[in-house]
Amino acid sequence: MRPTSRVASAALAVAALLLGVLPAQARAHPDRAPDRVPDRVTVGDRTFIADDRGRALQWRGFNLADKSSRGTNAFADIHESDLRDMAGRGFNLARLAFFWDDLEPAPGHYDRGYLAKMRRILDWADRYHIKVILDAHQDVYGPHFGSRGVPDWATRDEGLPFEPIPDDWFSEYFEPSVQTAFDHLYKDADLRAAHARMWMTVAAALGRHPALLGYDLMNEPFAKFLEGEDLPAAAARFEATELTELWNRLARAIRLVDHRSWVFVEPTVIVGVGVPTRMGHIDDPHAGYAPHFYETAMETGGDYDPDGPFIPAYEAAISDYPTRHRMPVIVGEWGGNPYVPHASQFVTDMTASLDRFSSGWTWWQWCRGGGYCFLDRTGAAKPNAQLLVQPYAPAVAGDPLGFAYDPATRTYTLTFRTRDNAAGPTRIIVPRDTYPGGYRVDLHGSNASWDDHGQTVTVRTHGRAGDTYRVTISPR
């Protein structure tokens, strides 16, 4: 069935969904097709997405975002060479930002050319064996406030004033007009319906693409403060009520046309200062958690403090929610200025932390130039950003018990335990840039062998389920 037909045939179902009158069975179990193997692997307090062979998957990559190109020029700054070069350095994931204001410039009128451009980028990603998360990106709501995201026609600010703050754009979220616009998006029936239809349109058009991993439902959601609330109190109330409802509503709309892809939900940005989320349960068979991981001092122009409390506080705040709900964690954004004095320690400490609590990440962002760009204007990796290029295991045939990379010695270690329902080899990416002089592999465990080809070390185990293996990769 063509995507447009799929959308049309589901229109009545969407209306019923938004009114809350879908049959209980359809709401609770939108995907009834049985999986051959579980869709996730949980080891201790951490969950990984599993492939169709039962292997635990890990992800490393970048955000792709062209915020300046609009309309017919949308995505003009994203090229096939970006995906090729990412893969050439061993990365396997891209988080692609798209903008609702470009996709649906007028109510109900979707730009099919825009969807075709998104598909073309997915085609490039598939060519280079990169998976993609589609990110419905917004900054300060949308173009009504001089940014990108929710269309102007879906912006209701009640005529309240808006004062741009160029030197501190995030503070614009606290403008009453911006908060009021968010409030209408979550509460007005027609905007709720439009939001769900937008996602259903994207999922119907792109949901079967082989490069698609899933959907990040809204970048950095925000909300209206009630009288007397500070940021933590407002975030807690919003996450527990409207945000949980929003994620479930959008996920149900997607499931009308796409039963297999993952949906990724974000908490509010308050988690970045060590405040645990108060989000409720996401009633979806393939739901993942996609928080952001920004160091507040660096976000305001400062240097990274290696002795500061940021990383321990963040790890303590971030882990409880996905552990309780058995959700894989892929950090959708993190990054920092690669030229501050402690930039190399920042990247080292952050990647080590991400290895402790997540199954993957995408750095902000893959681009050439200043700021957080991975590449300089010549296309070379910035010296401290180059530390992102590390060995990792995109597929583990069993339970990953531990993995870590020491940049000082350039030593990577993976320990895993085999399972009955995990088939196929374990794959480890060994980037050429990390070991220009070659590397050695030490494999401990009975009945196992390894070989390498290109940037991949392949480990095959032939023992019993429950056997433990350790792989160490170091400079030759």
Automatic annotation (TrEMBL):
Start and end residues of each Glycoside hydrolase family domain: 51-367
Alphabetical UniProt keywords: Glycosidase, Hydrolase, Signal
Domain Glycoside hydrolase family 5 C-terminal positions: 391-473
Secretion signal, residue range per the UniProt entry: 1-26
Xref: InterPro entries: GH (IPR017853), GH5_C (IPR041036), Glyco_hydro_5 (IPR001547), Glyco_hydro_5_CS (IPR018087), Glyco_hydro_b (IPR013780), Glycosphingolipid_Hydrolases (IPR052066)
GO process terms (BP): carbohydrate derivative catabolic process; lipid catabolic process; polysaccharide catabolic process
Presence of the UniProt keyword Hydrolase in the record: yes
Pfam hit, one: Glyco_hydro_5_C
UniProt GO molecular function: hydrolase activity, hydrolyzing O-glycosyl compounds
PROSITE patterns for this protein: GLYCOSYL_HYDROL_F5 (PS00659)
Domain of life: Bacteria
Gene3D superfamilies: Glycosidases, Golgi alpha-mannosidase II
Family membership: Belongs to the glycosyl hydrolase 5 (cellulase A) family.
Protein's UniProt name: Endoglycoceramidase
Organism encoding this protein: Streptomyces lydicus
Lineage summary: Bacteria, Bacillati, Actinomycetota, Actinomycetes, Kitasatosporales
